[in-house]
Design brief:
The structure is a homodimer of 467-residue chains. With 467 residues, chain A is α+β, with helices and mostly antiparallel strands. The first copy, chain A, has 2 domains: 292 residues, 3-Layer(aba) Sandwich (Aminopeptidase), CATH 3.40.630.10; 119 residues, 2-Layer Sandwich (Alpha-Beta Plaits), CATH 3.30.70.360. In chain A, 36% of the residues lie in helices and 20% in strands. Chain A is built from 14 helices and 18 strands. A 6-stranded mixed beta sheet of chain A has the order 1-2-6-3-7-17, with helices on both faces. In chain A, helix 1 crosses helix 4. The longest helix of chain A has 22 residues. Chains A and B meet through strand 9, strand 10, helix 7, helix 9 and helix 10 of A and strand 9, strand 10, helix 7, helix 9 and helix 10 of B. Strand 11 of chain A pairs antiparallel with strand 11 of chain B, so a sheet runs across the interface.
C-alpha cells in the first residue's frame, strides 16, 4: 500500500522541514521537565504547554490534560478513519534529573549539536523519539489532511517515576483511551546499525532504605571501636544482596524466573554481538550473574542495583565522625515470571534479616511494574517488522529491552491491549546519565519507519485486529 | 602552697567575671573557623584576630601568628618567672564542619544556652576548654600581675585536619617554643562526675578512596546485570575491612599491637562503668572487636571507621542509574605499637587486593599521627593529679582517650617533651556532631583545677623538672 520511500510526500515534507522539527524539539528540551523533584514543577508545566499547543496546531482534536493526582498526561485524538484500527500512540515528556550536572559538556537543558548528535537531557529519553511520532502524525495531517488509522496520543509525565498515576488516568478515562493497541515512541532501539524490535521489557521494583545505628553521629575517636557505624552496616547490607560471584543472594528473588529455552539460547547466539568491544567501550569488565552470556543477563535475568548510597561527611577534607545514619536507593529489574510485590517483599525481608543488633532499618518502597512480553503474532508487531524490513531492506531482529516501560504492563492490565515499542532512540545514548544525546540519523530512520508503519496499518483494515 | 579554694583571689575574680568569660567565648564561637574547608577562610581569620587581641589585652608578650604554609597558630608568652618551669599551654581554635546543618536545634555558630549547657560548634572542642585556660592565665595576670610559672601559649588552627603543618611550625620555631612540658587544654575529660586524667590517646591515619567502574553512569535497565556497580564494589570493599564478628580483617593491621596486660585489665575492671547505661544513652548496642570489654576496645584497640560514603543519585525520588563512581572516607584510630605509615599502607594494600576486575581504585592518604602515652611519673602528670585531688576531694583515675591529640606525638618527636591533657570538655558533648555543647559546670571545675595546678607548678620550682 505504501508508496516507494523516495517519493512519499509525507516523508518528503518531514525532510524539507528538518530545521523546524529540530527547533521545535530544542524548545521542548529547554523545558526542565524533571518529574522526580518538585523543584522542577515549572519545567513540567512548560513542557505540557508546548505539547498541548503543538497537538492542537497539528490538527488533533480534544486536546487536553488527563489528571489523576500526579503529573498530568497530555492527550489528543484524530478519529477520522472509520473501519481502521485505533492506535494509542505513547510517549513521555518527563525526564531524569540532570545530576551530576558538573559532568555535562554542554548545559543539560540547552539542545546542542555536536558531530551528528543532539545533546540534552531527554534528547533520547524520550522527547526526541516522541517528537518523531508527533512530527510524523502532523506531517500526514498537513500533507494529506488525514491519518491512515485512528490515533489517540498520550504523552505521559511520570514515566521516570514509575508511572505512578498512569493506572489511575487509564481507569478514569477508559472510554476516551479505548484502542486496539499501543504504539509506543518510547522503549528504544537495541542498536543503530541493525534493525530490531524489542518484544519485551524488564519490569522494575524500587525501594529506599535507611539504617540508623545511634541517636546521633558520634566522634570516631571517643566512640570508635565500641558502637556500630551506619555506613558499615549499610555496606554489609548491600554486599549481602549478592554472593561474591554475583549471584543474587536474596531468598525467593528468583522464584518464578524461567531459564532461557534452548530455542531462545540459539536465537540469542545468532545475534551479532561483540562482547569484547561492548565492555571496552564502557571502560569496564563483565559483571553480574555467572553462567549466563551478556544478552542473557540483560534480557532474561533480573537484577538488584543500588542507584544511590550516602551517609556521613561527604564534603571537602575530613570529618572524624561515626555516622549514625546511612541511606541507599535500590532498584530491581524484573523478568517474566516474577511478581513485583513478592520480589520487593523478598528484598525487604532479606534486609531485615541481615540488619545487625544495634541498627534500625526503615524501608520505603516505590511503585513496581512487571516485566512485559508482546505476543509473537500480534498484528502491530508484524506490521512494525514489515515497515522496518521495507525501509531498511533487512530482516529485523526480535530483541528484548533490559529497561522498563511501565506502560505496557499497566495498559495490558487495565485496557487489555498490547504494546509495540517503536522508538528510534538507541541503547548507548546515555539515558539517565550526563551528556544524553540522540543521533540525528534517528530522525531519518524514524520518519521513514513511522510513515511506512502508519501506511501499512491503514492498509490492513480493522478486521486484521479482531483476535 | 595554694590557698584554700574558697578564698583564692584569682578564682574569685574568675567567678565574678563569669558573664564576661561567657560573652568572650560566645564571640569566639561565632567565628566560623572550620579548618577543613577553604570556604570558611574568613571565619578562621576572625577567630585568630579575636585570640591575638585577647592575649595582648591579657598581658602576654610577643603575641603573633606562627605560619608554615597552612592555617597559622596563635602565639603569646609570659616569661616573668625565672627559676620556674615553662609550660607550653596548648589549645586549638579550629572546629569541625557544622554538617549536617539541618540537625542543629540552634544555629551552630551562635552560642545558645539551654539547661545548663552552652551549645555551638566548638563549644567543647576546643574553644570552651581553650577559653578556660586563657581566662585563668588572664585572671592571674590581672589579679597578681604575674603567673606562677612561665607560660608560652600556642593555639593551633589545624587540629581538626590532623595538625598538617604543626610539625613545620615547631621546626621553624624551636627556640621560641622551647618548654619543659605541654599543658593541653584539649583532650577532654572522660566523664563529668569522676575526676580523671587521660594519660594516653589513640593516633589516627586517614584516607579517601574512589572506585570507578565504567567511563560513565549507565542506565540500570539497559545495562543492569552485565556491568559492575561502583556502589556495590565500594560496599564490598567496606564490608571486607572487618570479619562478620567485627574483627579487623586487614592483613598487618594489628602488627605491633600489644594485648592489655593483666595489671591494665585489672585497673580497667576497677573503673566504675555502666555498660548497659552507656549503650542505652547512645541508642545502640555494643559493636566492635569481639573478646574485649568496652573500655578495652576504646582505649587499647585500634579501629577502622568509614566517616563518609557516597555515590550515585542521592536527591529526592529515584534515578535508575548504575553509578560509575563511589567514594569513601576512612579513618583508623591507632594504639601504641602501631606505625601510622605501615597501617595506612596495609589498608591501601587490602583495598587494592579486594578491588574486583572492571573497577579502578584511587586512594588519597592524609597526615597520620601515632598514639601517645605520657610517662606515669611525669612531674606535670603528678601535679595535675594533685590539683584534681585537692579541688574535687577525690582520687583521680588514670584513663585513656580514644581520640587523637596529634600534638602530643608531634611535640614529643620534635621538642622532646611530654604532654598532659587537662581539658574540661567531656566525652559525651557531641564533638564533631550536631548540637555540640559544653556543660556550664565545666567552667567551675576547670577554673578551680587550672588555678590549683598553676599554683602547684609554681611551688615546685624548676628543679623538680630536671629528669
Amino acid at each position: 500500500m505504501s508508496e516507494p520511500v523516495g517519493t512519499d510526500r509525507v516523508l518528503a515534507r518531514l525532510r524539507d522541514d528538518r530545521q523546524g522539527v529540530l527547533e521545535r524539539l530544542a524548545t521542548l528540551l529547554a523545558a526542565r521537565s524533571v518529574s522526580t523533584d518538585p523543584a522542577y514543577a515549572e519545567g513540567m508545566a512548560a513542557a505540557r504547554a508546548l505539547l498541548l499547543e503543538r497537538l492542537a496546531a497539528a490538527g488533533f482534536a480534544n486536546v487536553r490534560l488527563l489528571q489523576a493526582g500526579g503529573h498530568p498526561a497530555v492527550y489528543g485524538e484524530w478519529l477520522g478513519a472509520p473501519g481502521q484500527p485505533t492506535m494509542l500512540v505513547y510517549g513521555h515528556y518527563d525526564v531524569q534529573p540532570p545530576d551530576p550536572a558538573e559532568l555535562w559538556r554542554s548545559p543539560p537543558f540547552e539542545a546542542t549539536m555536536r558531530e551528528g548528535r543532539l545533546y540534552a537531557r531527554g534528547a533520547s529519553d524520550d522527547k526526541g523519539p516522541s517528537s518523531i511520532a508527533i512530527e510524523t502524525l502532523a506531517a500526514f495531517l498537513a500533507v494529506e489532511g488525514r491519518l491512515p488509522v485512528n490515533v489517540k496520543i498520550l504523552l505521559e509525565g511520570e514515566e521516570e517515576i514509575g508511572s505512578a498515576t498512569l493506572g489511575a488516568i487509564l481507569d478514569g478515562n477508559r472510554e476516551l483511551l479505548a484502542a486496539d493497541a499501543v504504539l509506543s515512541a518510547d522503549g528504544g532501539r537495541w542498536r543503530a546499525d541493525i534493525p530490531s524490535i524489542a518484544v519485551g521489557s524488564r519490569g522494575i521494583a524500587a525501594l529506599e532504605f535507611t539504617v540508623t545505628t545511634a541517636v546521633k553521629d558520634l566522634h570516631s575517636g571517643r566512640y570508635g571501636g565500641v558502637v556500630p557505624n551506619a555506613l558499615h552496616v549499610a555496606a554489609r547490607l548491600l554486599a549481602s544482596l549478592h554472593d561474591a560471584d554475583g549471584t543474587p543472594a536474596v531468598e525467593g528473588f528468583l522464584d518464578g524466573v524461567a531459564e532461557p529455552s534452548a530455542a531462545e539460547r540459539a536465537a540469542l547466539a545468532a545475534i551479532p554481538f561483540d562482547d569484547a568491544g561492548y565492555y571496552a567501550d564502557l571502560g569496564t569488565a563483565p559483571a553480574g550473574e555467572p553462567g549466563y552470556g551478556t544478552l542473557e543477563r540483560l534480557w532474561y535475568r533480573p537484577t538488584i542495583d543500588a542507584n544511590g548510597l550516602w551517609g556521613g561527611y561527604t564534603g571537602a577534607g575530613g570529618k572524624t565522625v561515626i555516622p549514625n545514619a546511612a541511606h541507599a536507593k535500590l532498584s530491581m529489574r524484573l523478568v517474566p515470571g516474577q511478581d513485583p510485590a513478592a520480589v520487593t517483599a523478598a528484598v525487604v525481608r532479606h534486609l531485615e534479616r541481615h540488619c545487625p543488633p544495634g541498627a534500625k532499618l526503615s524501608v520505603r518502597t516505590g511503585h513496581p511494574s512487571a516485566a512485559y512480553l508482546v505476543p509473537g503474532d500480534h498484528p502491530l508487531l508484524l506490521a512494525a517488522e514489515a515497515a522496518l524490513r521495507e525501509t531498511t531492506g533487512r530482516e529485523p531482529l526480535r530483541v528484548r529491552n533490559g529497561a522498563t516501560l511501565p506502560l505496557s504492563d499497566i495498559v495490558h492490565g487495565r485496557l487489555g491491549i498490547d504494546t509495540v515499542m517503536f522508538s528510534f532512540s538507541t541503547a548507548d545514548e546515555d539515558f539517565h546519565a550526563p551528556n544524553e544525546f540522540i543521533r540525528l540519523s534517528a530522525f531519518d530512520d524514524g520518519f521513514a519507519a513511522w510513515v511506512a508503519l502508519l501506511r501499512k496499518l491503514g492498509g490492513q483494515g480493522a478486521e486484521a485486529w479482531r483476535r
